[in-house]
Design brief:
One of its GO terms (molecular function) is oxidoreductase activity. The chain is mostly helical. The chain has two domains: 3-149, Rossmann fold (3-Layer(aba) Sandwich), CATH 3.40.50; 183-290, ACP-like (Non-ribosomal Peptide Synthetase Peptidyl Carrier Protein, Chain A, Orthogonal Bundle), CATH 1.10.1200. The protein has helices at residues 3-26, 41-44, 50-68, 85-89, 91-99, 107-119, 129-135, 177-181, 183-186, 189-201, 209-226, 240-243, 247-261, 267-272, 276-294; strands at residues 35-39, 74-78, 143-146. It has a three-stranded parallel beta sheet, with helices on both faces. The radius of gyration is 22 Å and the shape is globular.
Length: 295
């Protein structure tokens, strides 16, 4: 790679970020948020595009640097956007990206991710990253990734993921092909689909006391699946935040909810209803209303 090729790819992101930072600081503007649209390539690399990967790594580091100065900043490491933009216009490129570990982010998911990134406060870095790293493993919560995954286990002979040897992705080694073929990968499985089909024909089923508990458990199983955790002994009365639900996981849970139940719910509602039991109740109420509308 020539120096000119490096500068051509890194310059717009590096200089653009610096100029926006300097201009707002010089003008004394107190920003509510400063969101960088970075890329998964800044985390995992991008074969043949070290300049593009480097530009996005800079954005992630710059967000951390601004936070260290007490200024708002967050970065979204985006995967391939599937329904708009450059990759969406080039289907061959999109399919190549999907085979290489990008799950395909939708426009709606990007809006939710931006909303989450814009709401993050300036984190307490404990008087500097070095101090924080000495006390405990450091995590910069204002930088997060969206839009990567795999439809095969990392040990599958057809897996082409260039990040499968990255230690930071080690949790994916706990997922086996049998898990992906089962209920964990397919959502709530055939049992929930069968229940929802019966409920359409007999909406009174949704008003039975045991329905709330059943739906709460299915929602909880999907939450555990998104968190890559077992759903054994799942307690539907625990607060969802205690179970691990946050705004980022909420985006994925919301998409599953919309596809499974057929009506929408916001991430704030998912977090605000408190427990899985209450989410089960809201699902039952929403499904019953939907059945009434179709009759």
């Amino acid at each position: 790679m020539t120096l000119a090729q490096w500068v051509k790819a890194t310059g717009p992101k590096v200089k653009g970020a610096w100029y926006l930072h300097e201009a707002t600081v010089a003008a004394g503007i107190e920003l509510d948020f400063f969101v960088f649209l970075s890329s998964m390539s800044g985390l995992t690399g991008q074969p043949g595009q070290a300049n593009y990967a480097g530009a996005n790594t800079f954005l992630d580091a710059f967000a951390l640097w601004r936070n260290g100065q007490g200024l708002p900043a967050s970065a979204i490491d985006i995967g391939a956007v599937a329904d708009m933009g450059y990759a969406a216009r080039d289907q061959q490129l999109l399919q190549r990206l999907l085979r290489n570990g990008y799950s395909g982010v939708t426009e709606a998911e990007m809006i939710e991710a931006f909303r989450a990134a814009g709401s993050y406060p300036v984190p307490d870095l404990n008087d500097g990253v070095a101090v924080a790293m000495r006390r405990a493993p450091f995590a910069h919560i204002n930088t997060f990734a969206t839009g990567f995954g795999s439809d095969k286990s990392l040990c599958h002979p057809d897996s082409r993921l260039h990040w499968k040897k990255d230690l930071r992705m080690a949790v994916w080694h706990n997922i086996h092909d049998s898990d992906m073929d089962g209920a964990g990968a397919a959502g709530s499985g055939d049992g929930l689909k069968a229940f929802l089909a019966r409920a359409k024909g007999d909406p009174e089923t949704l008003q039975k006391p045991e329905t709330v508990g059943y739906l709460a458990l299915e929602i909880g199983k999907q939450l555990m699946n998104l968190l890559l955790r077992p759903d054994d002994d799942l307690d539907v009365t625990l607060p969802v935040q205690q179970l691990g639900l946050d705004s980022l996981v909420g985006i994925e849970l919301r998409n599953w909810w919309r596809q499974t139940f057929g009506f929408d719910i916001s991430v704030l509602q998912l977090l605000g209803f408190g427990t899985l039991e209450e989410l089960g109740r809201q699902a039952a109420v929403g499904l019953f209303k939907a059945c009434e509308c179709t009759q």
